[in-house]
Amino acid sequence: MSAAASEVVSRRRSLRGHRGRLALVVLGGGAASLLILLPLGAVFYFALREGWAVYSQHLSDPSTRHAIWLTLLAATVAVPVNTVFGVTAAWAVAKFQFPGRRLLISLIELPLSIPPLVIGVAYLFVFGMQGLFGPWLMEHDVRLVFSIPAILIITTIVTTPFIFREVLPLMLSQGTQEEQAAVTLGASGWKTFWYVTLPNIKWALFYGVSLCFARCLGEFGSVAVVSGAIRDETNTMTLQIELLSNDRVATGAFALASILSSIAVVTMLVKIWIERRGDDVLADGQEEARN
């Protein structure tokens, strides 16, 4: 193991011999268990309490399968769009100086400071029947509310900042020296981005993609407003859970919630792996810089 990597590991083990810090970690772990692990365990318990057969039956229900399909479709559309947009916007902000740069950052991060429900209502004011473009859309028979396209658009809007926020600080800290050197050596703009910029931000990009994907699956407020929650048409997984709960189909609601919980656990494990991998890469980079 390299010296820099050993330093990272030693920092992780620095709690040993410090009773006060260890007590805080134990206290934090206990609180996390009560607030996170206990409810997570309850979800799987109530989902499986009637047996695997009933559990599978609820998940194979056509309405539930459609909700799963629609949620994955929204994530499949929103994540690539936000990946391209987030990386491009972060690259423009980090590598160039132009008027309105800070305003652009504020606009991209705006969905984080506005409740999703408000974003959904604002969407209706623009594309709804009584909205700004509503009459024109109705005249041309284009439905952007209470439909699948509405879910895809609003999910993309709500999750816009996640990848941008993860890659922007790293791009800012790296500066433009490597890109300028590549251009000086004759590399085109695309080759410079593909072989210089992208490898430097790949771990932050993976982290942002995992966060964006998780948010796509769990979005509720804005989707509830623009979808209309039409059974078998515009119900996502979160809306289907609410519908099953209102219909007093508790086992079905918990069964679907267990799918979301499983995805959340997998996303958390991926996040931890990316963080550890990023620490190792940073340690190796520091060692190379010292040598």
What attributes does this structure have?
MetI-like fold; 291 residues; 15 helices; 80% helix; mainly alpha; globular; disordered N terminus
Residue windows where pLDDT falls under 50 for at least 5 positions: 1-5
CATH architecture: Orthogonal Bundle
Radius of gyration: 23 Å
Overall pLDDT metric: 86
Instruction: Kindly report the name of the CATH homologous superfamily.
Output: MetI-like
Query: Remind me, CATH topology?
Result: MetI-like fold
Distance between the termini: 15 Å
Total helices: the number is 15
Share of helix, binned: over 70%
Question: Mind telling me the CATH class?
Answer: Mainly Alpha
Report what the structure shows.
This protein has 291 residues and is mostly helical. The protein has one domain (3-290): MetI-like fold. 80% of the residues lie in helices and 0% in strands. It is built from 15 helices and no strands. It has helices at 3-12, 19-48, 52-59, 62-95, 101-108, 110-113, 116-127, 134-139, 148-158, 161-174, 177-184, 189-218, 221-227, 237-246, 250-290. Helix 4 crosses helix 9 and helix 9 (148-158) runs antiparallel to helix 13. The chain starts with a helix and ends with a helix.
